[in-house]
Amino acid sequence: MTTTRGLRNREKPITMLTAYDALTARLVDAAEIDLILVGDSMATTVLGYDDTLPVTLDEAVSHTAAVVRGTDDALVVADMPFLSVGVDDSETVRNAGRMLQEAGADAVKLESGPHTVEITDRLTQLGIPVMAHLGLTPQHVNQLGGYTRQGTTTEAAEEILSLARDHEEAGAFALVLEHVPANVAAEITDALEIPTIGIGAGPDCDGQVLVSSDVMGLTEDQPPFAEQFGDVAAAMSESIDSYREAVESGAFPADEHSHVEESVDDLTD
Ligand code: KIV
Ligand code: NA
């Protein structure tokens, strides 16, 4: 069983992958991945949206609950959707609370910034473990103008480091660093006690996270820092083609898939 405390000072790098359904969660969990993130990347991967903004809290709760049902050992982290955090403090607490109370997640992840330091402290005090997320925060795509690398000047990198310290101080149990220079991620990792989990942040973070559909080869557009480790799309297409051909040729269903009940009389007699 992975616990938030057990992530510190480990010998091997921490592994995290996204999942959005029980079926995938079962496979990820069986592969002994440490953490499963029910990312708001569900928007672009399984829900067909262009960016992550349209995902609702209800959708995220539903997918998180499905992942929890498929998971025995991994720590399940529910990503908080756009505007479910930060509009109002008590609403934020209730929204994050649903992820644990209703969906059964172990922790939540917030896209972090200066506005999430206090709420991270509050949630942590209430018993809701918080994973912070700095660097590229895709819910800000409309200000960023694209999914560009962050922390590319000394000043910008210092800002990320300072926010990382603030969130550690506020009680975050881990920090996702997305799309920042490897040397910046390495320095932030050194400066913190809590583990960093990188995505497009070089090899020196305490762990790595990727979107499972990128890893498995299910997504057409992958970010430059992703890596495809398999071709599940090809395997799916092949099985779907084979099914269609079998039905069209009459090969399916075969005798072993069918049952004739002799005791039923001819109905039209
Ligand atoms: O939503 C997501 O998949 C994420 C990871 C890329 C960290 O936030
Ligand atoms: Na996300």
UniProtKB/TrEMBL annotation:
<keyword id="KW-0460">Magnesium</keyword>
<protein>
    <recommendedName>
        <fullName>3-methyl-2-oxobutanoate hydroxymethyltransferase</fullName>
        <ecNumber>2.1.2.11</ecNumber>
    </recommendedName>
</protein>
<feature type="region of interest" description="Disordered">
    <location>
        <begin position="248"/>
        <end position="269"/>
    </location>
</feature>
<comment type="subunit">
    <text>Homodecamer; pentamer of dimers.</text>
</comment>
<keyword id="KW-0963">Cytoplasm</keyword>
<feature type="active site" description="Proton acceptor">
    <location>
        <position position="178"/>
    </location>
</feature>
<comment type="pathway">
    <text>Cofactor biosynthesis; coenzyme A biosynthesis.</text>
</comment>
<dbReference type="GO" id="GO:0003864">
    <property type="term" value="F:3-methyl-2-oxobutanoate hydroxymethyltransferase activity"/>
</dbReference>
<dbReference type="InterPro" id="IPR040442">
    <property type="entry name" value="Pyrv_kinase-like_dom_sf"/>
</dbReference>
<keyword id="KW-0479">Metal-binding</keyword>
<dbReference type="GO" id="GO:0005737">
    <property type="term" value="C:cytoplasm"/>
</dbReference>
<feature type="binding site">
    <location>
        <begin position="40"/>
        <end position="41"/>
    </location>
    <ligand>
        <name>3-methyl-2-oxobutanoate</name>
    </ligand>
</feature>
<dbReference type="InterPro" id="IPR015813">
    <property type="entry name" value="Pyrv/PenolPyrv_kinase-like_dom"/>
</dbReference>
<dbReference type="Pfam" id="PF02548">
    <property type="entry name" value="Pantoate_transf"/>
</dbReference>
<feature type="binding site">
    <location>
        <position position="111"/>
    </location>
    <ligand>
        <name>Mg(2+)</name>
    </ligand>
</feature>
<feature type="binding site">
    <location>
        <position position="79"/>
    </location>
    <ligand>
        <name>Mg(2+)</name>
    </ligand>
</feature>
<feature type="binding site">
    <location>
        <position position="79"/>
    </location>
    <ligand>
        <name>3-methyl-2-oxobutanoate</name>
    </ligand>
</feature>
<dbReference type="InterPro" id="IPR003700">
    <property type="entry name" value="Pantoate_hydroxy_MeTrfase"/>
</dbReference>
<comment type="function">
    <text>Catalyzes the reversible reaction in which hydroxymethyl group from 5,10-methylenetetrahydrofolate is transferred onto alpha-ketoisovalerate to form ketopantoate.</text>
</comment>
<dbReference type="GO" id="GO:0015940">
    <property type="term" value="P:pantothenate biosynthetic process"/>
</dbReference>
<comment type="pathway">
    <text>Cofactor biosynthesis; (R)-pantothenate biosynthesis; (R)-pantoate from 3-methyl-2-oxobutanoate: step 1/2.</text>
</comment>
<keyword id="KW-0808">Transferase</keyword>
<feature type="binding site">
    <location>
        <position position="40"/>
    </location>
    <ligand>
        <name>Mg(2+)</name>
    </ligand>
</feature>
<dbReference type="GO" id="GO:0046872">
    <property type="term" value="F:metal ion binding"/>
</dbReference>
<dbReference type="GO" id="GO:0015937">
    <property type="term" value="P:coenzyme A biosynthetic process"/>
</dbReference>
<comment type="similarity">
    <text>Belongs to the PanB family.</text>
</comment>
<feature type="binding site">
    <location>
        <position position="109"/>
    </location>
    <ligand>
        <name>3-methyl-2-oxobutanoate</name>
    </ligand>
</feature>
<keyword id="KW-0173">Coenzyme A biosynthesis</keyword>
